[in-house]
Specification:
Number of helices: 5
CATH topology of the largest domain: Outer membrane lipoprotein wza fold like
CATH class of the largest domain: Alpha Beta
CATH superfamily of the largest domain: Outer membrane lipoprotein wza domain like
Number of domains: 2
Structural class: alpha+beta
CATH architecture of the largest domain: Roll
Order of helices and strands: HEEEEHEEEHEEHEH
Strand order of the largest sheet: 7-6-10-8-9
Length: 246
């Protein structure tokens, strides 16, 4: 039980270390060692799992379609740059990363207020950058992978080289940042997907999800998990916006 507590604590620490921090560049956030657990698994503090779809926030690589009804000549497609900004006509680059459609529309309308009599701007998502997810544990090639927006846990594992023979396929761990910023955790039985097509609990993935495949028949140790994520998780797994860890 104690080793399972070490495992889940370490995974939660890794998830909360990823996210958004300083404007203007992709940046690595240090992954601090997991605190020593003081009680049982139930005291780790995971939030209840929720499938609630949060408002989409733009990410570097996303393509945006901007429409200005009062000035169609300003209509433009723009790509969110690595520094989080987009470049549009007549105004300075505008921060788009980590903003919702409504927030970006408001920022652009404000930027055009000194130029247009009716500066209302409409924004739509033209294309999204690949999702970055971390796949670790008993898979062929643990690491960070780019996935399409319809990716799921089984596809992520296949992309990471598939299950090792030592993998516990029926208890794959998924960790995600919840709507309130806290880590959520659930397990998924992917063994069914290998023995009964269409029967697996596939779990659609979101950006920065962690998929961890435990070892079958053996407990993971806290020290192994701490070293695994601290030393092997690539530094580009998170990016920085506005100096705030989300």
């Amino acid at each position: 039980m104690q080793s399972r507590t070490h495992l889940m604590t370490a995974l939660a620490v890794v998830l909360m270390a990823g996210g958004t921090t300083a404007c203007g560049h992709l940046d690595a956030e240090p992954i601090t060692p997991a605190p020593r657990p003081t009680a049982t698994f139930s005291n780790i503090g995971y939030a209840d799992w929720s499938e609630q779809e949060p408002d989409y926030r733009f990410y570097p690589g996303d393509e945006i379609e901007m429409t200005v009804p009062s000035a169609p000549e300003l209509n433009k497609s723009a790509t969110v740059q690595p520094d989080g900004r987009i470049t549009v006509p007549l105004v300075s680059p505008v921060m788009a990363a980590d903003r919702t459609i409504g927030e970006l529309q408001a920022s652009l309308s404000q930027a055009y207020a000194g130029t247009l009599l009716r500066p209302q701007v409409q924004i739509s998502v033209k294309a999204t950058a690949p999702l970055k997810v971390f796949v670790g544990g008993e898979v062929g090639n643990p690491g960070v992978y780019d996935m399409a927006g319809d990716g799921d846990a089984l596809r992520a594992i296949i992309q990471a080289g598939g299950f090792k023979t030592s993998a516990k396929r029926n208890q794959v761990v998924i960790i995600r940042r919840g709507p309130d910023g806290r880590a959520m955790m659930r397990t998924a039985d992917l063994l069914k997907g290998l023995t009964s097509p269409g029967g697996a609990d596939l779990v659609p993935l979101r950006r920065f999800d962690i998929v961890y495949v435990p070892r079958s028949g053996a407990a993971e140790t806290g020290l192994f998990m701490q070293q695994y994520f601290r030393d092997l998780l690539p530094v580009s797994f998170s990016y920085a916006i506005n100096g705030t860890i989300r």
